[in-house]
C-alpha cells in the first residue's frame, strides 16, 4: 500500500498555560489539529501533491485520525523571551519531481527571520537535488532570485508562528505545521 499524500495544508498556533503539555495542546487547538494522532515525518513534498487552504484541509480530518505532518515547535517559560517556529516549502516546476519541506525553531529571532530561514532551507535542499548552482554565501533574497530564474523551482514559501514568553512565566508554545492528507 502506497501512503503518498495527495494534499497538504499549512497551519500554525500559539498556546499559553502553566503546564508545558497543556500549552502545546492549546497551540494544537489554535492550529486546528488537536484531535489528530500526529506522526512527525521528514522533509519530502510529494510529487503532484496539491496545496490546499487550511480551512479546506481541516474538513478532511477526523478525531483520532493518524495524521502525518512536518512540525516546528518552540516552548519557553521565560517571561518575554521571543520564540518562533516555521515550516518552509520549495516546490519544483516539474510536479513529477518531489520538493522539500523544512522546519526551523528559534529563540530571539523575528517571525520574518525564522520564516525566511525555513524557506531558504527548503529551497536550498531542492536546489541541490536539482543541480542548480548557487553561492551559499549569498543572502537569501539573492539566492531566491537565482532559484526562481533557474526555471526549476516553481514556488517557495513559509508559515511561521512567533510569540513572546508569557510575562508571568507560564509556558508559551508556538507551532507551525505542514499537514499531509492521504
Count of extended strands:
9
Count of DSSP helices?
4
Poorly predicted runs are: none
Gyration radius, rounded: 17 Å
Broad shape: flat
The CATH architecture of the domain at 14-31 and 71-175 can be given as 3-Layer(bba) Sandwich
Fold and architecture overview:
By secondary structure, the protein is of the alpha+beta class. The chain has a domain at 14-31 and 71-175: 3-Layer(bba) Sandwich (Pyruvoyl-Dependent Histidine Decarboxylase, Chain B). It is built from four helices and nine strands, in the order E-H-E-E-E-H-E-E-E-H-H-E-E. It has helices at 20-31, 54-58, 111-130, 140-149; strands at residues 7-17, 37-40, 44-45, 50-51, 66-76, 82-92, 99-107, 153-164, 171-181. It has a five-stranded mixed beta sheet with strand order 2-5-9-1-4. Strands 3-7-6-8 form a four-stranded antiparallel beta sheet, with helices on one face. Strand 6 and strand 7 (99-107) form a beta hairpin. Helix 3 (111-130) runs parallel beside helix 4 (140-149). The longest helix is centred in the middle third of the chain and has 20 residues, at 111-130.
